[in-house]
Amino acid sequence: MTRVVVADDQPVICAGFAALLDAQPDLEVVGTAADGRELVELARRTTPDLALVDVRMPHLDGIEATRVITAELATRVLVLTTFDLDSYVYEAIRAGASGFLLKDVTAERLVEGVRLVADGSMLLGPAVTRRLVDDFAARGAAPPDADLAPLSPREREVLGELARGRSNAEIAADLVVAPETVKSHVAEVLRKLGLRDRIQAVVWAYEHGLVRPGG
């Protein structure tokens, strides 16, 4: 059972999301919050597996709440917002969010997204991914350096494929290994680089020049 908290300052939306998720046999909503401060307190008290977080909330916005939660807890965060803006995308990911969806997604896609992020996957819509890569291109990236030293050649290869948005199954097919082997490599990459999930690995790879936008 995946334990979830929902945070949104609009009561009807918050209640709707909570009811939708709690109706799933594998999901349990353990609390809701109407603002960022309340969300942080709720997360500290309930230690959920995942927090579904709106960006624009009073007292403490969703991005700052995400930053606090991911720094203190193992809780994964899926950011859900009406506003499809570049700054939100980048800042949410930098704050530790593992996924970013717009509120106009279908109920089925939202439930699927919660399950994917809770299971350790990253979740970015295609438009979000394109803008994120463009953002790295505009900012420039540092050249590869000794930060890669802990990784084996195969782990570097897997990290590069992750950064291109490829799934474990796709990487396994390219490398002619079992998906379980790729999963093991991914776990080692995260452990050695001190990263919490795949989306942080993607950010790390671009920032350190392991892959280049469009490459």
Radius of gyration: 17 Å
Apparent shape: globular
Any idea how many domains? 2
Number of H/I helices: 10
Alpha carbon gap, first and last residue: 39 Å
Assembly category = single chain
Largest sheet: 6 strands, parallel
How many E-type strands? 6
Unreliable spans: none
SSE string: EHEHEHEHEHEHHHHH
Description:
This protein is of the alpha/beta class and 215 residues long. It folds into two domains: 2-133, 3-Layer(aba) Sandwich (Rossmann fold), CATH 3.40.50; 141-207, Winged helix-like DNA-binding domain superfamily/Winged helix DNA-binding domain (Arc Repressor Mutant, subunit A, Orthogonal Bundle). The chain contains ten helices and six strands. A six-stranded parallel beta sheet has the order 2-1-3-4-5-6, sandwiched between helices. Helix 3 (62-72) runs parallel beside helix 4 (86-94) and helix 7 packs across helix 9.
